[in-house]
Amino acid sequence: MPNRELTDGSTAIVRGALAGGCDFFAGYPITPASLILDLMLREMPKVGGVGIQGEDEIASIGMCIGAAMAGARAMTATSGPGISLYSENLGLAIMGEVPLVIVDVQRLGPATGGATTVGQGDIQFVRWGTAGGYPIIALAPSSIPECYSLTRRAFQLARRFRCPVFVVADKELSLTSNTVDVGEEPEPEREVGPQVNGEPDGGPFRAYRYDPADGVPPLAPYGDGQLLRFTGSTHDERAFITKDSQTVDRLNRHLSAKIEEHRDEIDLVTADLEPDAATLFLSFGVTAGAMREAVTTARASGRKVSALTVHSLWPVPETPIRKALEGVQGVIVAELNQGQYRREIERLAAGCQVLGLNRNDGELISPAQFVEML
Amino acid sequence: MSTGMTTITPLVTFRNETPYPFCPGCGHGPILDHLNAALVKLQLDPRQVVIVSDIGCSGLSDQYFATSAFHGLHGRSITYATGIKLARPGLTVIVVMGDGGTGIGGAHLLNAARRNIGITVLVCNNMNFGMTGGQHSTTTPAGAFTATTPSGNLERPLDVCATVAVNGAGFVYRGTSFDPDLADRMTDGIRHPGFALLDIWEPCTAYFAPRNRLTKKALFETLEAMRFPTGILQQTEVPEYAEAYRAAHADELDGPTLRPRPIQPRFRSALERRFSMVLAGSAGGRVGSAARLLARAGVLSGLYAALRNDYPVTVRTGHSTSELVLSPVPIDYAGVTRPEVLVVLSTDGAKQSRKFLKQMRAEDQVVTLPEFADLETPAPVSVLDFAATGGRLRASQYALAVASAAAARLSLFPAEALLEAVRQGEPEHLDSDMRAVEAGRGAAHRISS
Ligand SMILES: Cc1ncc(C[n+]2csc(CCOP(=O)(O)OP(=O)(O)O)c2C)c(N)n1
Ligand code: SF4
Ligand SMILES: [Mg+2]
After folding, report:
1. Where does ligand 2 bind, in terms of residues with CB under 6 Å?
2. pLDDT tens-digit series, residues B51-90
3. Which one of B104, B267, B333 makes the best mutation probe of the A interface by having the most chain A beta carbons within 10 Å?
4. DSSP for A48-107?
5. CB neighbour list of residue A308: distance below 8 Å, 6 or more residues apart
6. What is the pLDDT of residues B6-57, one digit of tens each?
7. Distance set, CA A306 to CA A141, A288, A309, B202 (Å)
8. Pick from B348, B345, B333, B339: which is nearest to B370 by CA?
9. C-alpha pair distances (Å), A292 with each of A282, A306, A368
C-alpha cells in the first residue's frame, strides 16, 4: 500500500509555490487565505526568499510587483475582499507584463459575506477584475494534489507569458484536510534562478517587444546589467510614455495576442467522456470533486454520463469544451454561484441544452444533487 | 581588463537628453536638477539606481533620467520601491512622489517609515494636485484657495516630516526647491541606509501660485506661519529592514520544511463503504484534535480520511464541530449532511447538531453525555457517563473518549491503530489521550447496536 498523507489545500498551494521557485511573498491576513500567508512567511526565509505581511492588500500586491521586476518569483494570496483591493494593481501587472501568481481562496460574497463559508462567486470577477479588459490566466484546482500541481504550473505560465496568473481555490479546498497518496517518485526539484524569460537577442535592450504581437519580451530584472524601465502608462518598447496611436495599438494587440494566440499551451481540462452519454456534467474547483463522485455512483447504477473538469478557467478552454460537448444533448454546469461559468458554456453549446446546478447558500453541491439532474 | 590601468570616466550627468515637460517656474525641474547633481556626486552605477515615480506631474520625473525606472499607480510608489528593495537590497531606490501621493498612499508612507525600508522618498510638495487641475491635497495650507477649496481650505495640512519622524524614519529633511544645498541633502538621504524622506516645498506655477499669490518669499512665510521647521529634522541609525530581515533569518537557510510527512498504512480496516461521523462540542474541548486522531487512525488502517472543522472566528469561545469522513476509496466530496454517528459534547454542540439530528435515521447513532440525553432525533441516543464509570476524565478528554467508544463499537479500525495515532500525535497530550482512548473503549459496549 502506498504511503499516504493527511494534508490540506493551503499546504499544497504553498508546496506548489515552493516547487515553482517562489522566493517572494507578500499578503494581508484574511480568512480563508491566512494559512497560506502564515506558511509562506515561515517558509520564505528557508529558501533565501522574503515573506512580508503588507499593511493592506494594495501594499502586498504592490510589493510583489516591485519584487517581480527585481527578478523575484512572487506570489500573493487573498480572498474576494482582497481581490477587490488588488484590482488596480492587477491592471498594472497586465500592462507592465509582470510575472506574478495571485491565489484567490474564494469565500461566500459579496462584501464581507461569509468569512468561513464556501463560495465560487469570483469566477467572472477574476476574469474582469480590472479596467480595460485584457486576457487573464486563471487555474482552478479541484483536489489537493491539483492545489500543488496547478500552483506550480501558475509559476511557469506567469513566467512564460509575463503576466499575472490566478490560482482560484475556495475555502473547502484550502482548509479541509484530506488523504492523498504520496507518489513513489521524489518531489521535483524546486525551479530556481531569476525570473528571466528567454535570452535577450543581442540587439539594443528594449524593455518590451510588440513584434511579433504574440511574442513575450525577455525580462531583464533591475540590477541585472540593463537600464530597465517600467511603466503602467501606454508606452513604447523602451517603456517611455506615448500616446502615438499606432504604438498604442501595437501594445494593446500584443497584450492580447501573447495569451489569446497561445491558448493551446494554457488549456487544461480532465475529460471523462462516456460514448453515447446524453448528458455532460461540467464543473471546476471543489464542486468538481462532488461531480466525480456522482459520476461513479451514476455509472454503478448503469447510467451513462460524461464529465469535464475545467482546470484552466481563463482563457476558456474552448477547444476541449467543444469536443466534450459533441454528441451530448445536454450539459449541466455546476458551480457555487448563480451561473457565472454557465454563460461561457452557453456561447459554445450550440444545439445543446445548457442547465445550471447552482448553490449560493454556503453549502456544497452534493453528489446526490448531480445524480438527481440525470 | 588589465589591472591598475583602467581609467574610470566619471558620469557627468544622470539625465538623458529629453527636456522636462513642466510649466515655466514649476518647482519640479529644479528638484530634479538637484537629484541629478546628487547622483553625479554619488557616482552610482545608473543600472543599480531605480527611480520609482508616483503619479502626477512629479510622476513624470523618471523619464528624464538614464537610470532604471518604475512608474506605477497613484499613491503606491512606496509599495513597489519596498518590493524592489526587499528583493534586491543592493539597489539604490529613490521614490519621487507628489503631495498627492502622501494622501492616497499615506498608509504606505507611514509603514515604510515604521519598518525603516532603505529607500529615499522625495516629496515634491507643491501644496496641490498639479496634474488634475489644482485641487487641494493633504498639504494644502489652511485658508488656501484651490479648485476644490474655492472659499479657502478648512483642513489642517499634514506635517509629513513629523509624521514619519515620530514613526521611526531614519533621515528626515524639510526644505524647498530653492534650497542651494538641496543636492547635498539628497546625497545625505540616499547615503542613509534606512528610510529617508525629503519634504520639498515648491510652487505649482499653473495653479497654486497664481491662486494664492505664492512667491518664493511667501513660500517661506507660509512654512513659518504653519510652524513647520526646515532643515535636517531627524538623523538616526536604525537597522534597515531588508538587511534586518536577512540577518534575523540567516540561520534558517535549510530548505523548505513543508515536505510531505507520509503515514504508512500498517493496519487493516474492514470498512467497505463511506462512513461519516460528526463531533459537535465547544472551544477548548479538543474536538478537532480528537477527530484528527480518528482520521489518522483511519489512514493508518489503509482508509482515506477527510476532516472538515467549523468554529466561530472567535476561536476560543462557542462551538467547535468536526466532520470526519472515512472511506476505502479516495474522497472527492468531503461534505456531510447525514452523519452515521453524531457525537454531542456540549450545549454549543447540541445547537450546531440540530441540522444533523433531523436528517438522521433509525440506523444511525447519536452518542452523548448525560446532560444531553433528551436530544430529539429519529436515531437512537446512547449516553456515556464517564463520571459514573469512575474513569475520572477531564472535560477536554470527553471528545476523544466518546469518539473512540463509537469507533470501537462500529469496528471502524483496529484498536491498535488509534493507539498508534495517539503515539504519533502531540507528545504533550500523549498520556491524557491514551487514557481517553482506554476509557472510550471500556465504554463502547454501552452504545446500542
Ligand atoms: C487611483 C487614481 N486616482 C486618481 C488619479 C488621478 N490623478 C492623477 S495625478 C493626481 C494628483 C497628483 O497630484 P500630486 O501627487 O500632488 O502631483 P503633482 O501633479 O502636483 O506633481 C491624481 C489625483 C489617478 N491617476 N489614479
Ligand atoms: S501643473 Fe503645476 S505641477 Fe504640473 S507642471 Fe505645471 S506647474 Fe508643475
Ligand atoms: Mg502636488
Report:
1. B 22-23, 26, 28, 57, 126, 130-131, 204-207
2. 999 999 999 999 999 999 999 999 999 999 999 999 999 9
3. B333
4. T-EEEE-SSHHHHHHHHHHHHHTT--EEEEE-HHHHHHHHHHHHHHHHTT--EEEEEEE-
5. A269, A270, A271, A272, A273, A280, A281, A282, A283, A320, A321, A324
6. 677 889 999 999 999 999 999 999 999 999 999 999 999 999 999 999 999 9
7. 20, 13, 10, 70
8. B345
9. 10, 10, 11
pLDDT, tens only, B347-392: 999 999 999 999 999 999 999 999 999 999 999 999 999 887 656 7
Residue A162: name the closest of A114, A204, A215 by CA. A215
Query: A164: which residues sit within 8 A by CB, 6+ positions away?
Result: A90, A93, A94, A98, A99, A100, A101, A102, A136, A137, A158
Q: What class has domain B275-446? A: alpha beta
Q: Max CA-CA distance within chain B?
A: 96
Nine cell digits for residue A305: 454520463
If one counts every other C-beta atom within 10 angstroms of the C-beta of residue B21, the result is: 13
Question: What is the rounded CA–CA span in Å between residue B437 and residue B397?
Answer: 9
Q: How far is CA B263 from CA A182, A252, B127, B260, in A?
A: 9, 51, 65, 9
- The answer on pLDDT for B1 being more than 50 is no
Positions in chain A short of pLDDT 50? none
Cell of B425: 500525535
| CA B148/CA A318 separation, integer angstroms | 51
Decide: helix, strand or coil at residue B180.
Answer: coil
- CATH H superfamily, domain B28-248: Thiamin diphosphate (ThDP)-binding fold, Pyr/PP domains (3.40.50.970)
| Amino acid in the structure at residue A307 | A
CA proximity to A60, closest of B164, B165, B111, B55:
B111
Cross-chain residue pair B111–A59, CB shorter than 8 Å = yes
- List, in sequence order, the alpha helices (H) in B43-128: 77-87, 99-104, 106-115
Q: Which residue, chain included where needed, has cell 533565501?
A: A48
HSE-up of residue B320 (Cα within 13 Å, Cβ side) = 18
Q: Which grid cell is A77?
A: 494570496
Strands (E), A232-329: 269-272, 279-283, 306-310, 312-314
Q: In what order do the strands lie in the sheet with A279-283?
A: A269-272, A306-310, A279-283, A330-335, A353-358
The single residue listed with the C-alpha cell 541629478 is B36
Residue B274's Cβ-side half-sphere holds a number of Cα atoms within 13 Å equal to 16
Which residues in chain A touch residue B271, judged by CB atoms under 8 angstroms apart?
A: none
In the chain, the amino acid numbered A166 is: F
DSSP calls for B313-352: SSTTSSEEEEEEEEESS--S----SS-SEEEE-SHHHHHH
The model carries a pTM of 0.96
Residues of chain B with C-beta less than 8 angstroms from the C-beta of A208: none
Which domains, ranges and CATH numbers included, belong to chain A? 4-181 (3.40.50.970), 269-372 (3.40.50.920)
CA distance B195 to B241: 9
Strand duo A353-358 + A330-335: pairing: parallel
Mutate which of B22, B61, B132 to test ligand 1's pocket (most atoms within 8 Å of Cβ)? B132
Listed by start position, the domains of chain B span: 28-248, 275-446
